[in-house]
Amino acid sequence: MSRTLNLGVLAHVDAGKTTLSEHLLFAAGCIAELGSVDEGTTQTDSMSLERQRGITIRSAVATFAIGELTINLVDTPGHPDFIAEVDRVLGILDGCILVVSAVEGVQPQTRVLMRALRRLQVPTLIFVNKIDRSGAASEQVLREIETRLTNSIVAMGSTVGLGTRDARFESWAEHDDAAWRRLAEVLAEHDDRIFLALVTPAARLSVPDLAEQLTAQTRRSLVYPVFFGSAITGAGLDALMDGIAGLLGEADSDHGLALDARAFKVERGMRGEQLVYVRVRAGTMRLRERVHFGQARSGTVTSIRACAVGGDAPSTSLVAGEIGKVWGLRGIRVGDEIGASAAPRIVQHFAPPTLETVVLASRRVDRTRLHAALERLAEEDPLINLRFDESRDEIAVSLYGEVQKEVLQARLAMDFDLDVSFRETTTIYVERLLGTGSAAEFLGVAPNPFLATVGLRVEPGASDTGVAYDREPGVLGLMPIAFFRAVEDTVREAMRHGLFGWEVIDCRITMTHAGYLGKHGLGHQRFNKSMSSTGEDYRKLTPLVVTAAMRESGTEVCEPIHRFSIEAPTSTLDVVTPTLKRLRARTTAQAAAGGMTTLLGDIPAGRIHELQRRLPSLTQGDGVAEFEFDGYERVRGAVPTRPRSGPDPRDRREYLLGLSRRGARVAESRDPDS
Predict the structure, then answer these.
(1) Distance CA 519, CA 540 (A)
(2) Is the pLDDT of residue 249 over 90?
(3) CA quadruple 523, 529, 535, 536: dihedral sign
């Protein structure tokens, strides 16, 4: 019976991830000749922009087989600016290959990726690439993996001819007792039987027993086998493919359950139609079936193409474990859950973007087209996080870094024929609640002008918990469910703008009061909207209540902070240290060895780009810096604010006037005589 494995390939940029994917497809007989990243001829880098720049920007799926195991290989971007693309793929993987360069060793992005894989317990093989390159150091890289990624590693063999074109990987022989004992020592950490055998002189462990336990612990993400090779020459790939087939598990295949699937990539087809890549976790998705997705949305599956060896093929269904492309689900977004419940489960595995910039159309007449183009791109990437400023007619987009901005500019030019520029990149701050606050407005009680009762309590939540929303038990049943949904949706939208204009994070909001006016009319007349509560009443009233509750709790503005590790010649510290101080960086530790000094500390995210720009000249070209998001800290000094777009509930009078003016404009636009 055929088995399926959805396998991710992750790495720091330039570690050879896409080249490895290409060689796996070639070794499996799926392609007739090897493509080249430099020449833009690889299978998984299909976007013209990827081929031009030689980097992976969008995740891509290619399918090959090892025996009866069908593998959907998911190649992901390595550049940290495109970490959001990796984020949405992690939830669909059954296993992973983490690629590490034998020359550069463990790099910053490698550590970020490994932490996510361990947290999610994705079974992972580590492939040390580029053993044919000058400067390759297998033992040193093994030590780096052990100290910087995980000490639960198992080297699956050794290298011969390291650093030469003839470099190769040799798996441990069955009679290599020292190698098998090292394996037993690692496995014993999670297996008492093996531990007892190690400390009992008379006991013996057979190679088949150890191999079986290695497979079991790898599939439980307890140990991480390490292979060596070269994605260019193909050295070590046979052993890696054996490891994929033998050590990693396979996709769940419970077809009898209700449909449970996830959208992980959205594209547009040749005719501009929306198509979505889905992974089915349970049940079956069938052609012509109506399915629910996102928040109370649904659509009919009009076409299915299942991932298959050599490409994709038309299909009447996708079963548990399979990946495929689906048409017909209009309005679906990346990350949407698909199935009977379709409850949104938005899980972010990496740090949020901490920078933003305003996108400007070079020609005024292109503004409308720019809005449409950015909304199209936001379909593909929900972390683009568009922010529209109606009063200034501007659009801001969130960023992970400057390379992402360059790629966005190139995509708008190539895909939409739009010439754009950007304002200076700025920091995205956040707000946190200082305490608990409550507010309520009651139907028929001044100054509430709306036919609704809404009461809310806001309070701080634990770090990294997002916005949690709930209702007190006594509130349930006091009004129709549609009105409760209107309040919750509006609360979540309102928390994007705190008292200083920044998004409020890590908080709990509880609905404490509710009430409505039922369908009333005058005399014999039918339902009169002006005398009955509607969802619009709750959507307009809720921002006022949220703002009043936040005023009582108070908020503080926080800025994103990154940890840094800088390695620089000791002789340059007299210029590096003052520069760090000017950039508001704090050095917490330093160590010197061999004429080089390593500085550890933290720095505001908004100062990283300047430090990266200046470091080469400060260190005579020998400085190396690594950065990693470390959370938020309260802003010291002047508190930055962000202007709000549209009616602002912080000023009640202006807010109500703004709603009135906006309603008048809408009515005028609908009046055929206007």
Answers:
(1) 19
(2) no
(3) negative
pLDDT for res 669: 44
Cβ-based neighbour number of residue 127 at 10 Å = 28
563 beta partners: 602, 628
Confidence of residue 155 (pLDDT cuts 50, 70, 90): very high
- With b for 16 or more beta-carbon neighbours within 10 A and e for fewer, the 162-182 pattern comes to bbeeebbbebbeeeeeebbee
Residue 668 Cα to chain centre, angstroms: 42
H-helix segments, 94-206: 108-120, 138-148, 177-187, 192-199
pLDDT, one tens digit per residue, over 452-479 is 999 999 999 988 788 999 999 988 888 9
φ, ψ for residue 96, nearest 5 deg: -150, 150
Residue 151 CA to its chain's centroid (Å): 26
Q: Which two tokens stand for residue 324?
A: 């495929």
Residue 48 CB: number of other CB atoms within 10 A?
13
> For residue range 367-390, what is the model confidence (pLDDT) as tens digits?
889 988 888 887 776 556 788 777
Burial class (CB in 10 A: 0-12, 13-18, 19+), 670: exposed
CA distances from 101 to 12, 110, 116, 136, 141 (A): 9, 10, 19, 8, 8
pLDDT at position 665, please? 47
First-to-last C-alpha distance (Å) of the chain: 68
Name the pairing type of β-strands 3-11 and 95-101.
parallel
Instruction: Determine the Cα–Cα distance for residues 495 and 453; give it in Å rounded to an integer.
Output: 19
C-alpha 228/C-alpha 160 separation (Å) is 10
CA pseudo-torsion sign 209, 212, 214, 217: negative
pTM: 0.69
Alpha carbon distance 518, 539 (integer Å) = 17
pLDDT band at 524 (very low <50, low <70, confident <90, very high): very low
> What is the 8-class DSSP label of residue 440?
E
| Residue 317, phi then psi, degrees to nearest 5 | -165, 160
Structure tokens at 184: 């037993």
Q: What is the pLDDT of residue 35?
A: 54
Mean pLDDT of 74-94: 69
Query: Is residue 228 helix, strand or coil?
Result: strand
- CA–CA distance, 610 with 449 (Å, rounded to integer): 51
Query: Strand 624-634 to strand 555-569: parallel, antiparallel, or no bridges (unpaired)?
Result: antiparallel
Task: Record the tokens describing residue 152, joined without a space.
Answer: 């639960």
Q: At what angle do helices 481-494 and 535-553 cross, to 10 degrees?
A: 40
Which is nearest to 307 in space by CA: 25, 79, 643, 20? 25
Q: Pick from 420, 419, 381: which is nearest to 400 by CA?
A: 381
The token pair at 515 is: 């009430």
**C-alpha Rg value of the chain to the nearest Å:** 28
Rounded distance, CA 75 to CA 567, Å? 31
Q: Which amino acid is at 287?
A: L
Query: DSSP states of 487-529 as a string?
Result: HHHHHHHHTTS-TTSSEE-SEEEEEEEEEE-----STT----G
Please identify which residue in the block is written with the tokens 């979540």: 492
CA-CA-CA-CA torsion sign (356, 352, 401, 7): negative
pLDDT band at 532 (very low <50, low <70, confident <90, very high): confident
Query: Based on the number of CB atoms within 10 Å of its own CB, is 276 exposed (0-12), middle (13-18) or buried (19 or more)?
Result: buried
